[in-house]
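Thought: the user asked what DUF4352 domain-containing protein looks like in 3D. I have the sequence; next I should run the structure tool and report back without guessing.
Action: structure_tool
Action Input:
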Amino acid sequence: MDSSDAVAMILALVVFTGVLFAPSPVPPDAADPVSAGSGQPSDVRDLSAVLAGIEERVSSSHPLNLTPGSVPGTADEPAVPDENKTENETENTPAPVPEYDDDELARLVEENSISLMLLSVQNVYALQAWDEKPAKESAAALRTFAADLLKESSALRISDDRSGLNDSFALALGSYVAAGEALQGDAPLNRTMVDTALEANRQGSNRLREAFGCLQYPVLEAPGEIAAVNLSLPRPAAPGKELALLQRYIYEDRSRANDISLMLESTVGTGMYHLLDGSGEAVVAEPGRMFLLVEVKATNLGHRGENRVYTVRTPDLQAFTLHYRNTTYAPVKLSDRTSLGEPYAAATLNRYEKKAGYIVFDVPAALPLDECSVRVDLGGDASPVWALGRTLGSAP
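Observation:
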C-alpha cells in the first residue's frame, strides 16, 4: 500500500471516529427555531472542508480507485492416480496444482478500502447533519460499491490461511450494503432509519479494521538452514543432468515472487506397514513386491519479488514418478495415519515453512535402485530428476 494511501486512510479514520462518537443527530423538528426552516442545524459545514486534507494528500499520488478489480478464474481440483502406469500405457501429465486467489483478495482489500471508508464517512456526516439528499445519495453509492465488491470477493477461491481476512472483509461489505439499504426509498429521514444506517456504518468500519489487521505480515527471521542456502547457484540444472539424494533443487513459484527448495533425502524399502486408525490392520505387499519409500522435503525460501504473494504451493503427489528403464511407476496414495510416518501431500507454505513426508511406490522387490530415478514435473520446462543410487557427497 502506498504511503499516501496509508496517510489518507489514517485521516479518514480520525474523521470517521470523531463523527461516530459525536452527539446524536437532532431531527429538524427538534432544532432551534431560528434554524428549523432551513431543514438542518445551523452549524453544518461543507463536507469538502472536512475532507480537504485527505484530497490534497491523495491527489499528490494517484486518485482513489472506485472500480472493483477483475476476478481470475478458479482451477479444478486435481485427481490423484490410484494405480501404477507405464509410459507405454499413458502419458504422465499431472493435473494442475490447486491455486488460490489469496493475493487477489488482498489486492481487493488494499485498493478499495480507502474508497469504502470515504463513502462511509460522507454518509455518516450527512446523517449527523440530518441532510436528507446527501445522505441518500452517499448511501446509494456506498451500497452499490460494496455490493459489487462482495460479488467479486465471494467468487474467489480462498485458502484456509486467508479465511480470517475473507470473513472480515465480507462482513464489512455486508454492513455497508445494509447501511445503504436502510436509506432506500422515498420516505423522509426518521430516527429509525438514521440509527440503523449509523450502526451499520459503525459495524462496517470495525470489520474493515479487522480485515486490515489480517493483512499485516509478521517480520520473520530466516532460519539458519535457509539463510545458508546459496540462491545465486545456477538454476535449473542442465537438461539431462540427474541430481543426487540430499541435493537441493531451487525454483520460482508461479507468481515469480518466491523461491522454493525441493529435495529428495532418502529411500527405504519395506514389505509391510500398519494403519494407525485404531484397527491396527497390516498392509502387506504382494509376493515378489515391496513398498519403496522416498522422503521428500519442500521449503519456502522466502519472498524475492515485488508481488505481495508470500505463500507457495508445493508439487502435487502425482507430479512425482519413479522411472526404471522404460517403466514408470506412479505413487500409491496412503492413508493419513500409518506406521510409515507422515505421507507427502501438496501443501501451502508460508515464508520459511517446510513440508516433509514420504512418497510410496509399489515396485518389484528385485528392482535395482541404482538404476532408478524420480522425476518431478513442476510444469513448463522444469522437471528435475534425482538418481536414487547416488547421495550428495558420494562418488558418482
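Thought: the tool returned a structure. Summarizing for the user.
Final Answer: Structure for DUF4352 domain-containing protein predicted. Residues 3-63+100-215 form one domain. The chain has two domains: 3-63+100-215, 224-391.
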